[in-house]
Task: structure prediction
Amino acid sequence: MKNYYDKKDGYRETIQKGLIGVRCFSKSVSVGKATGEEQIEILRNEIQNAEAIVVGAGAGLSTSAGLTYNGDRFEQYFFDFIEKYGINDMYSGGFYPFPDNETKWAWWARHIYFNRYVDPPKPVYTKLLSLLKNKNYFVITTNVDHQFQRAGFDKKRLFYTQGDYGLFQSVNPEIKKTYDNEQWVMRAMEVQGFVKDINGVFTLPDNRRISMRIPTNFIPKCPDDNSDVTTNLRADDSFLEDEGWHKVSETYYKFLQTHKDKYTLFLELGVGANTPIIIKYPFWQMTMENEKAVYACVNYGEAYYPKEIEDRCVCIYGDIGDVLEKIMK
Result:
């Protein structure tokens, strides 16, 4: 087996940047003095003129696209789990101690399908692609919903640091590869009673009668040793960074190195406070290190930057989809 750790690891290299930034930046932050419209015009110009664009995307981007984990969407497809187990949203449901594997995997089939194998209600990702398609860009994201690729982004320019809903991994740590789960998800949705509409998308039957369990023989197993599997999501130290993960991590490292002294736009979209060390803090630090770099943050509730780099920052408070629409106009 190849020793992937001999290669440059863009993920950990950029986290190191973030750790440096945590120590270097003061606690003084700014939200900018220009108006929202002025900031949008500035960002439009930066996107047009930058030699390279590094996009850092968090959960807020998918939320803007309508892939919410609570509210009407959650209540429509998980009403039975809400009634029986009192689960409040999809995120917390992923950690619920279900009574058996048949119920657990019924939940996960729905969870994966409605976040990974459907298009989002709003075209936010396609808007972003229209702005970047002729640009020299690279995307790093903590999202695991695959929506960049569904929108048509070049998969060679995407780094899903925290995993992919579309992959399983074995619980056996000796098996160092992941498995595509699309075929299993589709079968598991069918056996619960979901039906496809005229667009080929699973939805509730007219009588709303669906099962909260899948048959025992439908519980997914590792095709190599028949061991149990789990989702390929970074929830703890058992997360598998497979060969593909390491290749794109190295690609990200090379992209950053190639443009470390060039006019680079670090464009942060919807990154919250849960994992700032992966995107937000590294973007701040790399902006400070490169006097030609510009940092831009678009966020509905957490748009700010440190005072040390405020002369090269753009800060837009608002819905990402609305901001992208205004930039396109």
User: Anything to note?
Assistant: The mean pLDDT is 94. Residues 43 and 91 are 32 Å apart (CA to CA).
